[in-house]
## 1
Amino acid sequence: MKEAKPPASTKRLRADASRNREKLIGVAAIEFAERGGSASLEEIARKAGVGIGTLYRHFPTREHLVEVVYRREVEVLCSAADELAQHNAPDVALAEWMQRFVDYIAAKRGMANSLRILFDANSEVFANTSGMIASALQRLVDAAVADGSVRSDIDISDISQALSGIYSAPDTSDWRDRSRRLVALLMDGLRWGSAKSRR
Amino acid sequence: MKEAKPPASTKRLRADASRNREKLIGVAAIEFAERGGSASLEEIARKAGVGIGTLYRHFPTREHLVEVVYRREVEVLCSAADELAQHNAPDVALAEWMQRFVDYIAAKRGMANSLRILFDANSEVFANTSGMIASALQRLVDAAVADGSVRSDIDISDISQALSGIYSAPDTSDWRDRSRRLVALLMDGLRWGSAKSRR
DNA sequence: GATATAATCGGAGGTGCCTCCGTTTCCTGA
DNA sequence: TCAGGAAACGGAGGCACCTCCGATTATATC
């Protein structure tokens, strides 16, 4: 039922088309972060230097655009996990990544509502992105456990739950500090009783 | 902190104001039923013969208007319960009211999304109206039980659950028939083994 | 390089949202 | 009955949404 794989998922875009598309996604990411889910689409088109018609051809509805921007950001977040793992001790990479997760969520708070609508309408998006995040977390934890810098008797789903709690916590003024402290606390708990901590 | 109680909850409206308000609610009910939650507010104002400014003064947001219309319709539905009880045998009244409930939900299907938003934003509305419906149902069932036309070992919450299932069932083309049959089935179950059925 | 053409662009235009404020209407107290 | 003032009216105006289609441009072909 899906189209043949070889010629790229959906046919290659013309050069100008894909240039514009990328520009739109970039500008949209900034606008959504600054103004939340109700940012003006015309403003986005204007700042991207394209007509409003072009925006609508690429993203037929606001939700389409929100989805693409969101997916892309999750990808960036998750690839940062591997990046961090390469350049840091496993437990440090894990700690740092969770802090980045908090920053990432912080940036998305203004869009909480739009994302909810998106998830409702297209639960696959939620499933995909949650899966990506869970697997990034899994890789980091596994490495840290293997390395002995984190205890081995932990359940990933407990950590996931804590992180999702961060996502759904009410939006108070000290949300960010609170969340960063929670992550630090989690890390302390994870390190406690690890092989390395007993040396 | 709340204002003094004596002079009516929020001060009496001027005659023209309350006339317009009623007109708006009436027109809005029709428009919402016909066009769903995205009916044009300007259209509603136009059909009600008032300026758009007047609509917005009475109902600062779309949700306000949706809420008022919804509340009013629940009131009508619930008062119909007593009406029916006065003019019919208790079990007939119960059956008929449940059928009306189905019709009522059918009319509200186009607004499901708006109502969800409303309930999320203001859970009190949901609590109030659910309560009204539950209590109407309770009165009808009690009367039918007392009368012996319906068995006495029933749990209202089971019926409520069946009715709420009707509300949340997916919107297929045969939804209405399905729902009416379900209600008929429920009534058969309720009558089975009642005092009167054993005569 | 020139040409054909299919893909893409872009913005005018019609509609709806919501605010603001000058005008009109109702009510009260004398 | 009337005058004064508070309350309510209503629509112009500014902005955003989204569609539609003539103009433009990238690419394949020769």
## 2
Amino acid sequence: MAKEVVSRKENYSLWYNNLVTKADLAENSAVRGCMVIKPYGYAIWEKMQGTLDKMFKDTGHVNAYFPLFIPKSFFSREASHVDGFAKECAVVTHYRLKNDPDGNGVIVDQEAKLDEELVVRPTSETIIWNTYKSWIQSYRDLPILCNQWANVVRWEMRTRLFLRTAEFLWQEGHTAHATQQEAIDEAEKMIHVYADFVQNWMGVPVIIGKKSESERFAGAVDTYAIEALMQDGKALQAGTSHFLGQNFAKAFDVQFANKDGKLDYVWATSWGVSTRLMGALIMAHSDDNGLILPPKLAPIHVVIIPIYKGEEELNLLRSQSKILKKKMEERGIIVKIDDRDNVRSGFKFAEYELKGVPVRLAIGPRDYQNGTVEVARRDTLEKQTVLQEGIADYVSNLLEEIQVNIFKKALKFREENTHKVDTYEEFKKKIEEGGFILAHWDGTSETEVKVKEETKATIRCIPLDMPEEAGVCMVTGKPSKQRVIFARSY
RNA sequence: CGGGGUGUGGCGCAGUUGGCUAGCGCGCCACGUUCGGGACGUGGAGGUCGAAGGUUCGAGUCCUUUCACCCCGACCA
């Protein structure tokens, strides 16, 4: 008897459950809104991390690490930056506990108060720029191209598992350059690195663009972003790259002597992606049977499930499975044999579908006789019986095909849910259906605010590689050079 | 921080206008039969009903306070 499946609209948690849970600590816990990443979920994150890390290094970056705690005063330096983060910071005020003399357990020792409070980093621009100041004196010290893998904390008023947890894992790149153009190039380069990763590894199509003024990062001159569309019709910002101008250099007084011997402020960028990407991965691909993982990021590519009666058959199939496993491993395929004797094979089928393992091989006595194996692919749920001979090639090709197919499917979904709209009336109707809307906008914040208030939709980005097209703003009728992307977002 | 909702074994829930020993499904344990798509039978373990206080002969149920979580806003990756 198959169990009832929770529908996608009702609940994403079915898919999440293999990967992550809410932090489940004592009552009154202040860590609400945090998450526990389970081993299987972390294995995916490690794959993402490894791939991105290599991409960063291939583009000339190096890893470094900076402190978790940032002196409060650092935040006062860059005005718009503090505006953006002040409301969501965790602050350390004391450094010691003691036993309560009244016997109520442990209390904060009020005598151990810090002179200056420490802020748990919500992002590291301030402490990094304070550090860079001592690293930079001459144009010969530039560029500095550092990346940091770290956790950060943002005390959001409302959290959402994966998409907006109070603590999350991410990487943040922070670069310093001698010229404006070099910094702009860096910011653009990195948003393209992100797009490459999200599309070609995660299989999620994205639109690369610039943020409008009101959606910009606190302290940035320009914010580039990649925007993805989830299956429920909402947009998700999957990564950002910021051209910071000289804002942080000025705030932290980071000057260098240029080739002419004159002092100038350093030009900066920062860029980051987080565990939110795992949310994107899940929400973009999963179906009612559970996760669908792209082979390039799946912790297990292939699971082999022996189907047997009795110990004799099991042993026979077990050793045959090992042979198949070895053949595939020689081709770099990650294979798991699930020969657990205490759950039935149908249960295993369902379990690995829930986990999103791309390919399943089932081998039973009949297959053993015929020298065949049943191959099932997770993305289409199709099953086929193929010869064991040449299985490594077959599976290797299949994995590549699945990787491409997942992307195509997501792209098709996005295209079917992207609409050009020319009037505000039509816009209001279309936005209710979800998806991306391409419309003309007069470039003003006022119009953007009005649209947001009336429809809850925001400008996700001003696409970079979309042809210019003259038109008029759908709201005000003022001239516009190009269409921008509107959507409701997470 | 505003509006709405929910707290009952590990998970999901039922429990009527207060009334007997607090139930059900899943899961868990034991034994047996099963095993090519989430098995079935029999037996069993597991609960301070979110917390504190109150009303009452009697509270999961009523009242007060409080805490947490979820959803919708505002804020944000």
